[in-house]
Amino acid sequence: MIEKTEYRKTDAVRITNDKEDELVVLTGAGPRIISFRPEGGNNVFWVNEEDFRGPAGRDDPWRVFGGTRLWLSPETETSYRPDNGPCEVEIEDGSVTVFSAPDPVTKIRKGVTIAPHGEYFAVTYTIKNEGMHLITAGLWAITCVQPEEGAAIHLPWGGGGPWDVKEMKYWRRWLQSATDVTSVQWNPTNEFFIVNPTGEVGKVGFANSRGFAMYSAGDTTFIKYAAYVPTAHYPDGGCTFEVYTCERFYEIETLSPLFVLCPDESRSHCERWWAGKAEIDKKTIDGAYDFVNRVLFV
């Protein structure tokens, strides 16, 4: 079901699937997918309540809002261009598309299309170059999840097989932030690289050939999937998935290959989401992937 609604007095659209999962995407700002409530449970996304204090103008400073947002990689000053203004909405063929007006500086229009399926949601991010110049970038889908004590993020690093090389990149320093590489929140194992957030600032990233990450909090797991293209050139030294931690929230990020976008051209980046309560084998990558394949592709 797809219907217009409000979220924190902001225009929005509510989408549900056959499993009674609920997504809410803001249309009064963003676009932002602000809420994901699996099976009528709590929102697994983090929401910055301060950003809903009142209407935001397009020229006001950038507001994070929370939930899932679309940026361009790699990170630059234009990443923080405000996308606080109202969006246009198209509801058709069992999906909803929400897209912003073109940014007055970058000339980029951002959009997100959400299509509910039996147990999951397909989320497609799109940018369009409405300027006169070429743009070199990638799409960067950033999901802020709600922090909880005992939470864990499972990242299936390595390629598997008889020649299995595992590599993780640490953002030792960037902007005004830094990662403690020796922190106890980073826990590499022979199967998963596990992030057990402590509330400290840090960031890691890697080439995720399996294409999925799992966030577990309490008895609920959120799975985010984006296909890996082994022949493509990815940003940040070849990263397709990145995780950022801080005290207020954690981010699970996917990145598309880099590309050159001509005027009037568009590019898209696709994810699939599942969340709920289920017995998932988190001891082995193959065991977890069997579950991911079953709920997202079968």
What does this structure look like?
By secondary structure, this protein is mainly beta. It has a single domain, classed as Beta-galactosidase, Chain A, domain 5, CATH 2.70.98.10. It contains 2 helices and 23 strands. The strands form 4 sheets. The chain has a 10-stranded antiparallel beta sheet, covered by helices on one side. Strands 5, 10, 12, 17, 20, 21 and 22 form a 7-stranded antiparallel beta sheet that branches. A hairpin with a 5-residue loop joins strand 3 (22-26) and strand 4 (32-37). The protein is globular. It starts with a strand and ends with a helix. The model has no long low-confidence stretch (mean pLDDT 96).
List keywords for this structure.
23 strands; mainly beta; 298 residues; ten-stranded antiparallel β-sheet; Beta-galactosidase, Chain A, domain 5; seven-stranded antiparallel β-sheet
